[in-house]
Design brief:
- The protein has four helices and six strands, in the order H-E-H-E-H-E-E-E-H-E.
- By secondary structure, the protein is α/β, with parallel strands linked by helices.
């Protein structure tokens, strides 16, 4: 078999659609463009960004202020005054906070904030600590353990 003897399988090559050549062609009358409207007219192209008369996004953007980061990390927020009820020298982790009813679930990481004071030393394990919370925990004689 030679290259010049190869033939396409039947049905592979289709003839070009010739529109506007009468009703007998199957593409007559409206030539596949429907009846009326913007897209049925010749030279109907609309410019990029055109939104059908609605104020386009490019024009509206200056009035839409701000930015929302969809990939930010959301934390469970726990203040020090909520942790003051634990007994002295106990180890406080997200699991013990869940058992004590401070957290609803363990789906998010935990961040400790510095509102309130600690009277007893605690070993607190969390994902993040603010500088004020870290200072107050260490001033009470406790220890901070950051989880990864």
């Amino acid at each position: 078999m030679r290259q010049n003897e190869l033939k396409n399988p039947s049905g592979v090559k289709q003839s070009r659609k010739r529109v506007g050549r009468g009703d007998g062609s199957g593409h007559g009358s409206f030539s596949g463009r429907g009846m009326k409207g913007q897209r049925s007219r010749s030279g109907h192209g609309i410019r990029p960004g055109f939104e059908g008369g609605q104020n386009p996004l490019v024009k509206a953007l200056p009035s839409i202020r701000g930015f929302t980061n969809n990939f930010r990390t959301q934390y469970h927020i726990v203040n020090l005054d909520r942790l003051a009820k634990f007994p002295a020298d106990s180890q406080v982790s997200p699991a013990t906070m869940l058992a004590a009813g401070i957290l609803k679930n363990l789906k998010r990481p935990v961040k400790i904030l510095g509102r309130g004071n600690l009277s007893s030393p605690l070993i607190i394990e969390a994902h993040q600590f603010t500088a004020s919370a870290r200072k107050k925990i260490e001033a009470a004689g406790g220890r901070v353990m950051e989880m990864s």
